[in-house]
């Protein structure tokens, strides 16, 4: 059996302007951004995201499109998650997609992380859903942890991450991401203590840092050195994102181009969206093993900007000018994915 695990930053998936269940403090915080964010634009955004998710292939042995497990971030609340599930039901009728989501409401813009999973293949373990807050002065970002069980009873502990942004400057904000790395590393260690050193654990997310930054290498203990993870006596991750650097893709106009990152800023590519796996998934000492070379950026042609200095085609937010929206866009991040095998 094979499973494709993916992650996608859904870029500001907010409910429409004036949504009645929006927390008042969030309404105040995002009022300028959501000015003109109509029901029509929201529904179009959801349809585009559903199309993007459906464009991710299933595991190699599957004839059904879409990932088996998708981590996500930048969703406002359960309302928008349910809207996305409804769109996916039409787009990928062969899937029984459901969601694990904690309405954290602690981020300064009220955005959350979570998972979408195919209930025909995976089941969330009862009592094993946790939301870990990454504290900072101006708000928090949460890490959602959920154990999933396969139909054969194998377990994989998944962490959906959205680490603090670089707002204010890369170096000035680096301490916040160091704290996030420590938070992930701490809970990885606790999982190992509870489930054993060969537990199958995967951390996916938008880390807002590149694979070589200290928050990943030092604080989360994520490395590109395979033997360092195999021989580690404490919790370490193997960072698969190194393998999808300089990946080739095709634009909507049929032009082939190189991908230098999962998102682009001022013409430069960054690899913020990463896949980290534990020793158990790396060595295959249990029933689950990652297929290392399958790790990749998911960049179907409709998502890819024709310019080499641009990455994914964004949908955007109106900020008072709905004409600035690109209705054919998706997100400012590409999805990433990897295949996990079960023996």
Give a summary of the structure in a few sentences.
22% of the residues lie in helices and 33% in strands.
Low-pLDDT sequence parts: none
In the CATH hierarchy, what is the superfamily? Endonuclease/exonuclease/phosphatase
Within the largest sheet, what's the order of strands?
Answer: 5-6-7-8-15-10-9
Tell me the major beta sheet.
7 strands, mixed
CATH third-tier fold name:
Deoxyribonuclease I, Chain A
Quaternary: single chain
Quote the beta fraction. Answer: 25-35%
Helix percentage: 10-25%
The CATH architecture: 4-Layer Sandwich
Number of strands: 17
Average pLDDT: 93
Tally of separate helices: 7
Question: H/E series, N to C?
Answer: EHHEHEEEEEHEHEHEEEEEEHEE
Which structural class matches the secondary elements? alpha+beta
Radius of gyration: 19 Å
**Mass-distribution shape:** globular
What's the domain count? 1
The CATH class: Alpha Beta
Distance between the termini: 7 Å
């Amino acid at each position: 059996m094979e499973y494709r695990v993916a992650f996608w930053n859904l870029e500001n998936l907010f409910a429409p302007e004036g949504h009645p269940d929006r927390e008042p403090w969030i309404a105040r915080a995002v009022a300028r951004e959501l000015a003109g964010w109509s029901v029509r634009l929201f529904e179009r955004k959801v349809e585009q995201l559903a199309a993007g998710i459906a464009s991710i292939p299933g595991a190699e042995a599957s004839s059904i499109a879409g990932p088996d497990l998708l981590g996500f971030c930048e969703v406002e609340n359960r309302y928008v998650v349910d809207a996305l599930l409804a769109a996916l039901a039409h787009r990928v009728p062969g899937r029984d997609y459901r969601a694990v989501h904690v309405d954290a409401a602690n981020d300064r813009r009220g955005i959350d992380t979570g998972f979408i999973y195919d209930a025909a293949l995976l089941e969330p373990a009862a009592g094993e859903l946790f939301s870990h807050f990454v504290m900072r002065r101006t708000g928090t970002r949460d890490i959602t942890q959920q154990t999933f069980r396969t139909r054969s009873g194998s377990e994989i502990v998944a962490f959906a991450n959205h680490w603090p942004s670089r707002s204010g400057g890369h170096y000035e904000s680096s301490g916040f991401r160091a704290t996030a790395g420590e938070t992930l590393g701490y809970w990885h260690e606790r999982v190992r203590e509870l489930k054993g050193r060969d537990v199958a654990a995967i951390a996916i997310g938008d880390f807002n840092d590149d694979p070589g930054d200290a928050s990943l290498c030092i604080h989360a203990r994520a490395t590109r050195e395979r033997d360092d993870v195999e021989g580690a006596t404490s919790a370490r991750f193997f960072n698969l994102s190194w393998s999808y650097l300089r990946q080739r893709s095709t634009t909507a106009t049929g032009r082939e181009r190189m991908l230098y990152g999962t998102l682009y800023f001022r013409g430069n590519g960054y690899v913020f969206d990463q896949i980290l796996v534990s020793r158990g998934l790396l060595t295959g000492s249990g029933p689950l093993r990652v297929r290392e070379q399958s790790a990749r950026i998911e960049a179907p042609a409709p998502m890819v900007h024709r310019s080499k200095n641009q990455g994914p085609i964004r949908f955007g937010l109106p900020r008072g000018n709905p004409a600035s929206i690109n209705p054919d866009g998706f997100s400012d991040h590409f999805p990433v994915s990897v295949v996990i095998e079960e023996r």
